[in-house]
Amino acid sequence: MRAAVLHAVGRVLLEERPRPEPGPREVLVQVSSVGTCGSDVHYYEHGRIGDFVVTSPLVLGHEPSGTVVATGPGAGRHHPGQRVSLEPGVPDFTCPECRAGRYNLCPRMRFFGTPPIDGAFCEYVVVHEEFAYPVPDSVSDDAAALIEPLSVGVWACRKARVGPGTRVLVTGAGPIGLLCLQSALAFGATDVLVTDVNPARLAMARGLGASETLDVRESGLRDAGFEPDVLLECSGHPAAIGEAVRAVGRAGRVVLIGMGGDEIPLPLSHVQTRELEVTGTFRYANTWPQAIALAASGRVELDALVTGHYGLAEVEKALTAGARDPELVKAVVRPQE
Ligand SMILES: [Zn+2]
Predict the structure, then answer these.
(1) How confident is the model at residue 52 (pLDDT cuts 50, 70, 90)?
(2) What are the tens digits of pLDDT across the range 248-260?
(3) How far away, in angstroms, is 100 Cα from ligand 1 center?
(4) pLDDT per residue as tens digits for the range 149-161
(5) Could you tell me what percent of the chain has a pLDDT over 90?
(6) In angstroms, what is the span from residue 210 Cα to ligand 1's centroid?
(7) Distance, CA 110 to ligand 1 centroid (Å)?
């Protein structure tokens, strides 16, 4: 099969590799669509994210959809031909975190496109059958791929306890911010203010249901007169985070999703006197069925986020598209093309 392999910073080569064989309880999936993520771009540009360092050739891509084409020993959940969305991280199922239901925190997680585990910018992948989720025909291949970033939004809304009538501030209108916006609305949020510095992305946020948008280059959050119950921080921008936290009302919840600097200034007295809860999020757990249901019902619009398609030979182009085009939201790789 063909695979797009990251060999060094800024260098992806198309290679022939053996097609993987499904092991016990695994399925072989022919990959249809793979979303590109900021973390793929980061590995491509810097060769590392924090403690995860690319030290040998690596296939990136962790937002895949596809079709089951073969099953391994003991795998009885899917038949060949089943269209699936893949949850790209398989934990060990047995450690204390897994047993507590927090399998996203499993220290032995094997996650696609994260060193040393190969990802899905290739024609075929194998995955544990429990991490391949059937999707109905109403969910496109691209949408089935974007269940992964949608899961980040769903998980953030669960952490923040977004519910009917919750007022939400989303800082950053990239793909994750736009999916946090849509998740919050699906969870029952009534007022969602989205901030960014990119007019095209703010326009998309309005189209997807934001009650208000704010270009923070033009006016400050302080002047917006909006006191959210929940901040879903998706910008990762240290200066923006402090100002956004200051806007949050009493007993509010702050979920830090965006990845920026390792350290940020936090307005601590505001957090203390208002009893804000501040939490990080790491990926997601048990989100796929809910995320698929939201996409299938039309409560969440995923195809609208896709702004470009690329074949397997064009992975570099997909990973650099964002730097060339400020209107780009989500580049999708189609490995069979
Ligand atoms: Zn575990």
Answers:
(1) confident
(2) 999 999 999 998 7
(3) 9
(4) 999 999 999 999 9
(5) 90
(6) 37
(7) 10
Task: Using the mean position of ligand 1's atoms as its centre, give its distance from the Cα of residue 98 in Å.
Answer: 4
SS (H, E, C) the chain: CEEEEEEECCEEEEEECCCCCCCCCEEEEEEEEEECCHHHHHHHHHCEECCEECCCCECCCCCEEEEEEEECCCCCCCCCCCEEEECCEECCCCCHHHHCCCHHHCCCCEECCECCECCCCECEEEEEHHHEEECCCCCCHHHHHCHHHHHHHHHHHHHCCCCCCCEEEEECCCHHHHHHHHHHHHCCCCEEEEEECCHHHHHHHHHCCCCEEEECCCCCHHHHCCCCCEEEECCCCHHHHHHHHHHCCCCCEEEECCCCCCCCCCCHHHHHHCCCEEEECCCCCCCHHHHHHHHHHCCCCCHHHEEEEEEHHHHHHHHHHHHHCCCCCEEEEECCC
User: 188 CA distance to ligand 1 centroid (A)?
Assistant: 32
Distance 106 CA to ligand 1 centre (A): 4
User: Is 190 a residue whose pLDDT tops 90?
Assistant: yes
Cα of 125 vs centre of ligand 1, distance in Å, is: 22
15 CA → ligand 1 middle, Å: 33
Distance 131 CA to ligand 1 centre (A): 15
